[in-house]
Each structure stands twice: as C-alpha cells, then as structure tokens.
Design a protein that fits this description.
With 272 residues, the first copy, chain A, is α/β, with parallel strands linked by helices. Chain A has helices at residues 19-27, 30-42, 62-73, 85-94, 108-113, 115-120, 140-157, 178-196, 218-232, 244-257, 264-271, and strands at 8-15, 47-51, 78-81, 99-104, 125-128, 164-167, 203-205, 236-239.
Chain lengths: 272, 272
C-alpha cells in the first residue's frame, strides 16, 4: 500500500449492526449492500470495511456473500472485518481486488491463526493495540510498548513491516477514563513514527468514541476529534459515511493536507 | 504568564467592527461593552482582546474608555489590540490587571515603538510572523525563519523570551494559496518548540480563516480547523465567543487535554 499526504476514509457502513445490512444478509439480497457500497465510494471512501458479524453454523458463506454484494457496487479495496479465520479466508478467496485483514492483536489465538493468513497471502493487516488478554491499555506508554511487541511478532512471523496497520483502539468517552483514553490515542499516533523510525500506517474506528450514544451532539464531537486525529498524523479513519460532519471534516483535512483548491459550495453541501 | 495543559481562548468580541461595540464607543456608553465582556468570561474566555480601531484626532481616549468598560464587566486579563503606540500606552495606563500587547512585527516602525513598550512595562507581547514589509510569508519555512528573527530582535531589546507570544498569521481560505497557508500555520505551530528549544506560547486569530465570508458552513469549518490547531499545540486561540461551535470545540479539547470529566449535557447546550 502507498502512503497518502492526507487521511483516507474507510467506510464502516457494511456492518451487521446496520439493520439494512442485517436484513439484506438474512435474505441474501445483494442489492441493498451494493447500493450502500456505491454510495460510500461516491462520498469519497478509499475502501469499504465488511463486517458480517459472527458466522453461524448454517450460514457459513456470509462473508463470501457480503464480498460479492459489495463488489457489485464498487471496486474499492475491502477491509475484511472479522475475528474468525474461516470468515477471513472466505473473504480472501472472494476478493477480486485489494484486501486488508482487520485484524489481529497479541491475543495468542489471533497471533496463531490470523497473522499467518496475512503473511501467507501477502496482505496488509490491522494490528490492534490490545493487551494479550484482549483488554484496552491504560496509557499511551502502554500502547507504544504493545505496538513495539506487535511489530516484533509480525516481523518474526514474516510480515513485511509496511503491511502492518496499527489501530490504537479508541475507547468510548463514556468510560470512566474516556477523556484520558482519547488523549492517549492521539499521543500514540503522534509518537508512533518515532518508535518505528519511519512513517507508519494507523487506523482508528471513530464510532467507538460515542459508542451506544444517541445524543445529538455526538456527530459533531466525532468530527472534531477526527480533525485532531488528522493533525496527529492518522493515515486511515474508519467512519460511518452517513455521518456528514465527519465526512466533511475529513474532506476539509484532505484539502488542507493535500494542497487542493477550496470550495465553499462543496462544504455547504455537507454542513448545512 | 504560566503555561496551561490545554488551549486558552481569547475573546475577540470587543472589536470596533462589531456594530454593538461601535455604537457604544461612539456614544461613550460602557454598559453594552461591559455586558459583552461579562458574557465572554461566562463562556470560558481566559482573556479579552480589546480592539478599539484606529484613533481619531478628537477621540484620543478610545482605548481608555474601552478598557474601563471591559473592566466593568470582568477582571480577566486584556489583550491591547492596536498598532498605535499611543493607544497601547492608554491601555497600559488604564489596565487594572494583567495586560498583553497585541502586537508587533519585524516592520521597523513597530520594532522601534511597540516592542520597547513591552520591555519597559515587562508585559507579554504578541509577535506576528510577517515580513519586515508587513506581508504574509509564503511557507512554514519562511514563518520559522521570521520567528527566529523575532526572537533575536526581542531578546536584544531586553524582552524576556517567555513573554513573546508568536502569532503565525492565518490567511483567509479564499486566498489563491489559502489551503497551503492553513497547512503552513499548522506546521509552524508543530515545529516552533523544536526551533525555540522549548515550549513556546502561540496565538492564532481564527476569524481570519473565513474572513469576510458569510457562508453557513463557515462556523463549522472554523471549529474543525481549531481542533487541528489544538492538536498542533496552539496555546491561545483568538476567537469570537458567539461562534458556539468553536467554543464547544475548544471546550472539548480542554476536556481531553486537561483530563477533565466529560458531560454530554454540556456539549448538547453548545452544539444543538
């Protein structure tokens, strides 16, 4: 994967938690999923995350089906979002273009089953900065230590270090230490290039910030936090493309960081 | 002046371009100005910028009057915003609390008349990163060179380097190179600590970004750019406190950077 001068958007809209997607998956109707994927592409997404939820015994082909449906709507790269090696394997088989595995962590089962898939198929893979027991770290220092361990483990397994995309794991603001966690994620992204001795791909799932929250201020706070992530150097933001403020913010950041011409008309469409 | 862990807001509401202020100044009515100053304090401003416009022959005491009026509404520190040494002198005389001179640049007349006021009265002073001819620099490199020159000139004149507040001078997005200018200001703020060998106070006048623009998307773009300024390390933002999205954004940033508890109710008040 190449580096860009500005933050890329990965659409998280194809998620089993989206009722439209859930209905389409259940009925094996590709149309609604293809339509969402096409809309995300039109809004400027650089890739589509595909999260079909947990596999069930009787519907083993859910990832395959979702991939086919997405690819009927767009030829953008896809992020195969699952913790199940079987599902990831289906996705790799079915994928016509670039695939990214999303993802693994230091949890031993994931190091043993998911990382080797990335190595064998020479695919980029997202590495979550989680403790080996799957818990979220408490500080930027701990996140950076885990990043260093992840790099070690990946390199020893044979992964090209340029294929590791680091996700510092954003926690909800509603956690007791939610604001400290939000600060820690920003600090981690700022510090990672120094730790790695080079620029490094990073990914943050923005919706975690306001997870489960329906407050009308949530979309705006997400957009403001996204602006800080862009300034901290984030390379990939996983966002819901229906959140127009966040999409507008990312576009504004790409105009600034990509030295593109500015148009008021464009931002009025998003923001008013 | 002490350093804070998060960006401070300076209210730019007391400005002769605000019709309410202009009418009050003309009629020498302190009430409306005191009321605005009090409202800015209640919204969380850390200081009040006082910009009475150019002096006129028959109303030499305009800065004195404005200062008295502001101080009837709040005891916050004031930024004396004028390029006229006489006006600045009035402000210093009239000021009961902390004053900051706003400001000077490498323009020879300003180095000769405004900088000495700061040195003589041991006051912090804003230094604009402008060319000696008063023009806006073209790049971050040029801004950093000018910052180095400003530091030299100030130190030689006897200013405590900790009393220099650097303003990289934000240009309007509508300029031909507006987006490159916006990127350059962020880069300058990120790089200044390295140039100075220490943390350094910085100030940006946010309203410059959308200067003269009435588009409904302008307040939101200001807020998003402000989030990036906070992440870049800006210490002081000069903003209009009636721009509720920018105020909310600054408050959100202070919650994150100051490790303060988060409240949805607070942000709903600002953002909905």
């Amino acid at each position: 994967m190449e580096f860009h001068t500005y933050m890329q958007l990965i659409a998280d809209d194809i998620n089993i938690l989206n009722p439209v997607v859930a209905r389409a998956v259940k009925a094996r109707e590709a149309g609604p999923i293809a339509e969402i994927a096409g809309r995300c592409a039109a809004l400027g997404a650089a890739a589509i995350d595909v999260n079909p939820g947990p596999g069930s015994r009787d519907r083993r082909d859910t990832m395959s089906f979702c991939l086919q449906a997405v690819q009927a709507g767009t030829d953008l790269p896809v992020y195969l979002d699952s913790s199940e090696p079987d599902m990831l394997w289906q996705g790799i088989e079915q994928c016509a273009g670039q695939a990214v595995i999303n993802g693994f962590s230091l949890e031993p089962a994931k190091v043993e089953t998911i990382l080797p898939l990335a190595v064998r198929h020479r695919l980029p893979v997202v590495g979550f900065l989680l403790r080996p027991n799957g818990h979220v770290p408490a500080s930027a220092e701990e996140r950076l230590q885990i990043a260093s361990d992840l790099l070690d483990v990946s390199t020893r397994a044979g992964l090209d270090p340029a294929d590791l995309i680091i996700d510092p794991v954003l926690a909800p603001l509603s956690w007791n230490d939610g604001t400290a966690q939000a600060a820690s994620v920003l600090e981690t992204i700022r510090m990672l290039p120094e730790l790695c001795g080079t620029r490094v791909r990073t990914l943050v799932g923005l919706s975690n910030l306001t997870s489960g929250v329906k407050h009308p201020a949530a979309p705006m706070l997400e957009a403001m936090y996204l602006a800080r992530l862009a300034e901290a150097g984030l390379s990939h933001a996983l966002i819901n493309m229906r959140r127009s403020q966040a999409v507008a913010c990312a576009r504004f950041c790409s105009v600034i960081d990509g030295n593109q011409p500015f148009s008021w008309a464009e931002f009025e469409r998003y923001l008013t």
